């Protein structure tokens, strides 16, 4: 990331343990970076990555941590950005599905921003008419990998695999089978998405394939 583009940074931690505005997960760096040359995943799809427009100056408002994104922190960041006089606010966060206009902090904060002459751009789910929703990432190539199953079936898909199997057979399972609380609430749609995506902290490190057959795939 070109650090000369950063002109300021604020942090609004939901937890009191981390007071650093530094990116902990890579997502903020990805969406705010100006130009990264030779970016790749272990040499796969090497090329240049561009985030914010080259001439832009970036003020960072970090509102999320591993513990989530606090409503009060999001609204505080909007207020500070408005007070700082930014020209555009770009967010890459939000609830899925979006909340009601009068309850959703992003809808409320972005409405205040627009009322102050600031254009809010959102890179996530949004239905508020005063927000422009844009694609988070575009990619100009396809990476195709082959998956051969033990039953003889072969599938070709857009998949990235950086680990060699050395032609050994590797067993497969579902994230739903290996999940652990608090990712075990089947009634909540958000939890369903979390454990099927093998989200951080949702997989049992002691799980072995063939166990816990009471859990559906």
From TrEMBL:
- This one is known as Peptidase S8/S53 domain-containing protein
Stretches assigned to the Peptidase S8/S53 domain: 12-106
What family classification does the UniProt entry report for this protein?
Answer: Belongs to the peptidase S8 family.
Q: Write the record's keywords in alphabetical order, separated by commas.
A: Signal
State the Gene Ontology BP annotations: proteolysis
Domain of life (superkingdom): Eukaryota
Q: Which SUPFAM superfamilies match?
A: Subtilisin-like (SSF52743)
Question: Which Pfam families does this entry report, sorted A to Z?
Answer: Peptidase_S8
Mind listing the GO molecular function terms for this protein? serine-type endopeptidase activity
Q: Which InterPro entries match?
A: Peptidase_S8/S53_dom (IPR000209), Peptidase_S8/S53_dom_sf (IPR036852), SBT (IPR045051)
């Amino acid at each position: 990331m070109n650090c000369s583009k950063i002109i300021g940074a604020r942090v609004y931690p939901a937890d009191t343990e981390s007071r650093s505005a530094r990116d902990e997960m890579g997502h903020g760096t990805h969406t705010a970076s100006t130009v990264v040359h030779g970016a790749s995943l272990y040499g796969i799809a090497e090329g240049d990555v561009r985030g914010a427009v080259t001439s832009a100056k970036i003020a960072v408002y970090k509102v999320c941590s591993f513990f989530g994104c606090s409503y009060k922190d999001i609204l505080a960041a909007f207020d500070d950005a408005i007070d700082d006089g930014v020209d555009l606010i770009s967010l890459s966060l939000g609830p899925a599905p979006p909340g009601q206009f009068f309850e959703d902090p992003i809808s409320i904060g972005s409405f205040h921003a627009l009322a102050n002459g600031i254009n809010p751009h959102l890179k996530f789910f949004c239905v508020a008419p005063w927000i422009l929703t844009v694609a988070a990432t575009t990619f100009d190539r396809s990476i195709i990998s082959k998956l051969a199953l033990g039953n003889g079936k072969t599938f070709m898909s857009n998949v990235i695999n950086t680990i060699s199997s050395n032609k050994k057979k590797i067993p497969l399972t579902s994230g739903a089978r290996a999940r652990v609380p608090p990712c075990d609430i089947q009634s909540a749609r958000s939890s369903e998405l979390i454990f099927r995506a093998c989200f951080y902290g949702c997989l049992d490190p002691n799980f072995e394939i063939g166990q816990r057959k009471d859990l559906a795939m």
